[in-house]
């Protein structure tokens, strides 16, 4: 399995992902793991429009992502995963999918979340999920764009 990076970004696919992070990770596949987005054909079509030439893109639900990884479907690819919630990555770890690092980019300040940085807000469940990811040995950092300095999530939670 060649997961290069996993990122929490509630905007999923957007300019910074396509123009900076995909380049930084040298991704050959952008993978959006989101149960709702995987069923929204209009959203999927708009995200696919921004896909860099020569790069694959998957927009799939969590169960399909787990099955595809366990079936070694991406073994020859450099995969960059984007999901909206930290709980998605807890589920991947629960299924035995190894994650080299999790980057927290954007979590919107809505639905009772507490702002912890300019671009990241979390609720108690998300804080616990981030702590769980760290406790399993996965580095979790906050970094908006690749040129920003990485900051360990522990500084904020």
Task: Tell me the fraction of residues in β-strands, as a range.
Answer: 15-25%
Going by CATH, the homologous superfamily would be Phosphotransferase system, sorbose subfamily IIB component
Which ranges are low-confidence, i.e. pLDDT below 50, for 5 or more consecutive residues?
none
Tally the beta strands: 9
* Main β-sheet description: 7 strands, mixed
Q: Residue share in helices?
A: 25-40%
Topology, element by element:
Layout: E1 3-9, H1 15-25, E2 29-33, H2 41-49, E3 56-60, H3 62-70, E4 79-83, H4 86-94, E5 102-106, E6 114-115, E7 121-122, H5 124-135, E8 140-142, E9 151-152
Parallel strand pairs: 1-4, 1-5, 2-3, 2-4, 5-8
Antiparallel strand pairs: 6-7, 8-9
Helix pairs in contact: 4-5
Structural commentary:
By secondary structure, this protein is an alpha/beta fold. The chain has one domain (3-155): 3-Layer(aba) Sandwich (Fructose Permease). It is 32% helix and 23% strand. It contains five helices and nine strands. It has helices spanning 15-25, 41-49, 62-70, 86-94, 124-135; strands spanning 3-9, 29-33, 56-60, 79-83, 102-106, 114-115, 121-122, 140-142, 151-152. The strands form two sheets. Strands 3-2-4-1-5-8-9 form a seven-stranded mixed sheet. A two-stranded antiparallel ribbon has the order 6-7. Strand 2 (29-33), helix 2 and strand 3 (56-60) form a beta-alpha-beta unit. Helix 4 (86-94) packs parallel to helix 5. It is globular and about 35 Å long. The mean pLDDT is 96.
């Amino acid at each position: 399995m060649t997961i290069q990076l996993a990122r929490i970004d509630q905007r999923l696919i957007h300019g910074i992902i396509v123009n900076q992070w995909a380049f930084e990770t040298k991704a050959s596949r952008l993978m959006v793991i989101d149960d709702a987005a995987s069923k929204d054909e209009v959203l999927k079509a708009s995200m696919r429009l921004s896909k860099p030439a020569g790069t694959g893109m998957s927009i799939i639900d969590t169960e399909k992502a787990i099955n595809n990884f366990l079936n070694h479907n991406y073994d020859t690819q450099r995969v960059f995963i984007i999901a909206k919630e930290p709980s998605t990555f807890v589920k991947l770890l629960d299924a035995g999918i190894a994650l080299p690092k999790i980057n927290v980019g954007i979590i919107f300040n809505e639905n009772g979340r507490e702002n912890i940085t300019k671009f990241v807000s979390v609720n108690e469940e998300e804080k616990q999920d981030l702590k769980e990811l760290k406790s399993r040995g996965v580095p979790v950092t906050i970094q908006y764009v690749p040129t920003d300095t990485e900051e360990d999530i522990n500084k904020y939670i």
